[in-house]
Design goal:
Layout (H helix, E strand, L loop, with lengths): L1 H16 L10 E8 L4 E6 L5 E8 L5 H13 L9 E6 L3 E7 L6 H5 L10 H19 L5
C-alpha cells in the first residue's frame, strides 16, 4: 500500500509542476523524430514559431518519482546558461513531456563523436568543453537535489 501511495503522491506532484494544457499535441507542429526509439522529437511551437526538442517519457508507476525529480531539477537550473533550458512540460494520460530548448548543432556528445571531425580535438576546445560542463555540474549541485 505504501508503494501505491508514493505513486499517487508523485503523480500529484508532477501535475502541480506541468503546464495544464489539455491537449499538448495541438501546441506543436512539424514533428520530426530524432531518436524514435527514445521518444524524442524536433517540433515547432505554434505560439512562438520556435523550434523545440520534445522528450516523451512513459509515466509508469516505476518512474514517477524519478520523473518528478528530473522535472524539479530542470526547473531549478532553468536560468543556467550551461544547461539546456526546459521551456515547458506537459502531462498526458501515459507520458510526461519535456519541451526543451533545441540545440541546432546537437549535444556536446554529438559534437565529440561527429564523423566530420577528422583530427583530434584541440586542447583549447577540450578545456572549453570541460569548463562549461563543470559550470553546468556546479549549477546542478547547487539545487541540492542530487
Amino acid at each position: 500500500m505504501e508503494a501505491q501511495d508514493a505513486h499517487v503522491t508523485a503523480l500529484k506532484t508532477i501535475e502541480e509542476m506541468v503546464n495544464p494544457a489539455e491537449c499538448p499535441e495541438t501546441l506543436y507542429t512539424d514533428w520530426t523524430p530524432v531518436h524514435q526509439s527514445h521518444g524524442t522529437y524536433r517540433a515547432v511551437s505554434i505560439a512562438t514559431g520556435q523550434t523545440v526538442f520534445i522528450k516523451k517519457k512513459p509515466l509508469s508507476p516505476l518512474y514517477r518519482a524519478v520523473l518528478t525529480q528530473e522535472l524539479a531539477i530542470l526547473q531549478a537550473v532553468n536560468d543556467c546558461l550551461n544547461v539546456v533550458r526546459c521551456l515547458d512540460s506537459h502531462l498526458t494520460d501515459t507520458e510526461l513531456w519535456f519541451v526543451m530548448e533545441h540545440m541546432n548543432e546537437g549535444s556536446v556528445a554529438d559534437l565529440l563523436r561527429c564523423e566530420y571531425v577528422s583530427q583530434p580535438l584541440s586542447e583549447t576546445l577540450i578545456a572549453f568543453v570541460c569548463r562549461e560542463s563543470l559550470r553546468a555540474l556546479s549549477a546542478l549541485h547547487s539545487t541540492n537535489k542530487d
